Amino acid sequence: MTDETSPSKSHGRLTMRASLRPRDLMEDVVVRGAWVAQVITLLPEAFPGVLGASLTGRALGLGLWRLDTIDLRTFGLGKHRNVDDTPAGGGAGMVLRADVVDAALRAAGPGLPVVYLSPRGRRFDQAMARQWAAGPGVTLLCGRFEGVDQRVLDHHAVQEVSLGDFVLTGGELAAQAMLDATVRLLPGVLGNQASTEEESFSEGLLEHPHYTRPAEWQGRAIPAVLQSGNHAEIAKWRRAQAEAITAERRPDLWADFKG
User: Fold this and answer.
1) I need a labelling partner for 6 at 20 to 30 A (CA). Which of 145, 199, 224, 232 fits?
2) pLDDT at position 193
């Protein structure tokens, strides 16, 4: 796009035309109403990154979801496109300006929830990924430096979300992780959608162990119950393993589950 107020790059295909070619060779494929991710960032070249590989990349190419990057530098001020300034009250680092971020959010447009990736936000989890996947999409604001002027966050009622209790140099890696967790839940992205129903956090528990061939390796055998063919007993064993692992490794999750 050439308009400076429009997203700078779009990934995924948004139109469909009749073709007899196999789907993986089609040039202009889209699913109407595809889920949309908008990412406001100073590093648009970081995308799609890992999102362009494996299942999420295939789904992106098929138009099952769309990724737009909005270059925050485009909205910078002056000859050097400045996007930040010194913090009010003094202190180290720089803060992203409210007027610059406001212009980028306005260019992103309404209709999608806006999330600022921040270590002080609510921690991202599987429930949030499912909530995002059930909607039309999300706009992610990637912070840099010391953060974003609070006034623009308040003005646009931006939700703050954290990847975890640690600090990154910017929000781009967090954005990719959150989008990966969300996109894989979209219909058609995974080959077996039922797999999302048994994985960690789907029922408030960590996932049970997995095994495959060979039946014995380094003197360690696959648990006999998994080779019994008794699906009821297998389900019971997996549930018991999930509960035991959760209680041992994540007592916080176990307490919530029991509560």
Assistant:
1) 145
2) 60
